[in-house]
Amino acid sequence: MSSVPDGNNYLAEMIWQGENTASGTKSAAGRPLSVNEMKDAMVRLFDEANRANLDVFRELLAPEFISYGGAGFQDLFGPEAFKQLYLQFYQGLPDLAFRVTHVVAEGDTCGVRGVLSGTHKGNFMGFAPPTGKFVCWTGTALMRFNKNGLIDARWQEWDGLGVMQQMGVVPGSPTFDANRQDPPAPQRLSGIYISPNANKEIFRQLVDELWNKGNLDFADKVFYPQAVYVSQPDYKPGSQGLKSEVSMLRTAMPDLHVEFNTILADGDMVLGWFKQTGTQTGSLMGIPATGKKVTWGQIIIAKFEGGQIVETWSNEGTLELMQQMVGGGVSVGA
Predict the structure, then answer these.
(1) How far apart are CA 94 and CA 82, in angstroms?
(2) What CATH number does domain 196-326 carry, 3.40.50.300, 3.10.450.50, 3.60.10.10, 3.40.50.150?
(3) pLDDT tens digits for 72-131?
(4) Where are the domains of the chain?
């Protein structure tokens, strides 16, 4: 899996201070884009795809565009290959739609998270016969823009396990419910200014202390006591939810190690994408110890107020992890 560079922190600082505003233009190909222009391009990309205008991929994706594998996907090369992937999705979900919920950008990289949904009326990717069910899941993608203002690389994490469960391919009840109301965000009006760069460093330390060092109590300093986990509504508020998750992983994989692919800071949001590796010497998700070395990705978006996290959203390669532990699985893409 390729890495995304950290990029230039200056634009994130400018946005935080209100010195950089959206351009309002549809595209600005031929020159590097500002942070807000990248955001405009991302929203437009999915708006047009929702209208089934897949020519937008030829307009906004560079000829050398690569959608890198991971999360069960194959590598795709060029705008046409990415268009064909979308067409494959449409065969299984003719009313497929992507609702953008978060856009986080810094330097030359833009992260976009959203909710995908559609009615399962066709064979999905050749392994899920139509069920007629309305399926819904979340996904987060990272897009890198080149010096000409075009997207030349893409990486992603998605709730593949939830999709497979809803389509009956994998047993179990999906955790995502399209009708569920997100928990209200706690109001922590501290009045303390913390810069995007400072928030980024706090997040980086959090991941290193918890995942790599097993210092679970470090989370008590970083999470607001009433912080909510929007993607994991059953988690206890504050630091307890994340501490339980990491403790479970470290118990099953004592050699658990994470390293960042990239980390972006934008206003009060930090997006961290990291790779997790470990040897499964204990039971995990109901799967007995296999002794296998496994690798999977996770993207977390955290909202900060006054130097503490008040909300998080996450996409993790759980399906990819399970496939490695039990063997087999499916590969998505052309």
Answers:
(1) 17
(2) 3.10.450.50
(3) 678 999 999 999 999 999 999 999 999 999 999 999 999 999 999 999 999 998 889 999
(4) 10-166, 196-326
